């Protein structure tokens, strides 16, 4: 448990750092130069080098995006595998489990990219975030409930203050996602 906690904390911390760095760099670069028309990742990639005057900027941006995506994918895949093995008691050979989990993650993106090209992948990225905001409460609420239950977790159950913090954070995330969904679908 201790090593799994360290592993997931480091992985999520790196993902947070990379994503924050990407957003801060892009926002400060484009705001300073008055380029507020940047709406997609492709625009940001194309405009970074001319705006910063460094040819390597676009390449570093792409590498950071790739690292962030890989970190998120690996963390999510490992979490799914742990749930499959632990809570659902599904035992699959390692090679089959890897094919299934990675296939479920990448096949939809490959299909959209093949059928619709760059514009389709940008729309898929936005749609994936909307779907994520819709399903997030269905994953987080049971997670907080299960990790706070001493009958399930035993000595590893959340303490009172951690449970309260988790509930507060969960309600905040659900509230913010509700506002986002209202803005997207309600006008």
State the secondary-structure class: mainly alpha
Q: In whole angstroms, how far apart are the ends?
A: 45 Å
Q: Give the total of beta strands.
A: 0
Number of helices: 6
Shape, please?
A: globular
Uncertain runs are none
Instruction: Give the rounded overall mean pLDDT.
Output: 76
Kindly state the percentage of residues in helix. Answer: over 70%
- For the report, how would you describe the main beta sheet? none
What is Rg?
20 Å
Order of helices and strands: HHHHHH
Describe what this molecule looks like in 3D:
The chain is an all-alpha fold and 187 residues long. The protein is built from six helices and no strands.
Features:
187 residues, 86% helix, globular
In short:
With 187 residues, this protein is mostly helical. It contains 6 helices and no strands.
Helix-strand blueprint:
Layout: H1 2-33, H2 41-52, H3 56-86, H4 94-147, H5 150-153, H6 160-186
Helix pairs in contact: 1-2, 1-3, 2-3, 3-4, 4-6
């Amino acid at each position: 448990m201790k090593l799994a906690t360290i592993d997931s904390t480091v992985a999520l911390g790196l993902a947070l750092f990379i994503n924050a760095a990407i957003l801060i760099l892009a926002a400060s670069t484009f705001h300073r130069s008055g380029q507020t028309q940047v709406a997609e990742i492709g625009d940001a990639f194309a405009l970074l080098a001319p705006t910063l005057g460094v040819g390597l900027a676009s390449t570093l941006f792409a590498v950071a995006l790739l690292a962030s995506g890989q970190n998120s994918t690996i963390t999510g895949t490992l979490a799914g595998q742990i749930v499959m093995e632990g809570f659902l008691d599904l035992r699959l050979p390692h090679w089959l489990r890897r094919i299934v989990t990675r296939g479920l993650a990448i096949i939809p993106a490959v299909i959209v990219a093949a059928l619709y090209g760059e514009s389709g992948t940008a729309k898929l990225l936005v749609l994936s975030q909307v779907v994520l905001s819709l399903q997030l409460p269905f994953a987080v609420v049971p997670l907080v409930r299960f990790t706070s239950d001493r009958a399930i977790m035993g000595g590893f159950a959340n303490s009172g203050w951690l449970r309260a913090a988790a509930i507060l954070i969960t309600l905040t995330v659900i509230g913010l996602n509700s506002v986002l969904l209202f803005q997207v679908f309600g006008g």
